[in-house]
Design a protein that fits this description.
It comes from Labeo rohita (Indian major carp). By secondary structure, this protein is an all-alpha fold. The chain has 7 helices and no strands.
């Protein structure tokens, strides 16, 4: 939406100047704010579009994309306006707060490890990789030791064959 406003600046200015009873105008300060917001939010919007899939699991992408955002996309550059830098910093802070809890981080570290797209190669820290492997191995062993699991089947679905 901000991109459309930036594209249609001249038309918006013309419409606002036609009404002689109001003092609405699109100033250069407004344009600077819109450009700063657009520069900060455009990459985030692209990631949102990519991750908003209904037919596929995206939880395994959260930590890799957070790292990509932190290192590249939302990293402050020299060309950024101060407002753009503060917006990017605010977005990063919010994202890191949302995913910093230990339990959430443990689960999110397991997701890319089990996802064939990453093949366990996402984790760069050897200690964290070893810890994740050990946790998954312990879970698998405990599931095997627990024995068979009852599966509920909805009415109308075929019953699974007992093994």
């Amino acid at each position: 939406m901000v991109e459309r406003i930036l594209e249609q600046t001249q038309a918006i200015r013309h419409i606002l100047s036609d009404d002689r009873r109001s003092s609405l105008s699109l100033t250069w300060q407004d344009m600077d704010v819109l450009k700063a917001v657009h520069e900060a939010l455009k990459p985030v919007g692209d990631f949102t579009d990519i991750l908003s899939g209904e037919n596929y699991v995206t939880s395994s992408c959260i930590l890799p994309i957070l790292e990509l955002c932190r290192d590249n996309v939302l990293a402050a550059s020299e060309n950024d306006l101060q407002l753009t830098k503060s917006i990017k910093t605010g977005i990063l802070t919010k994202l890191e707060v949302d995913y910093e809890s230990n339990s959430a981080h443990k689960i999110l570290r397991k997701c890319p490890f089990l996802d064939p797209r990453y093949r366990g190669g996402y984790e760069t820290d050897d200690n964290a990789l070893a810890e994740t492997k050990a946790e998954l191995q312990a879970e698998i062993v405990s599931l095997e030791a627990a024995g068979p699991v009852a599966i509920r089947v909805k009415e109308g679905e075929a019953q699974p064959e007992p093994s």
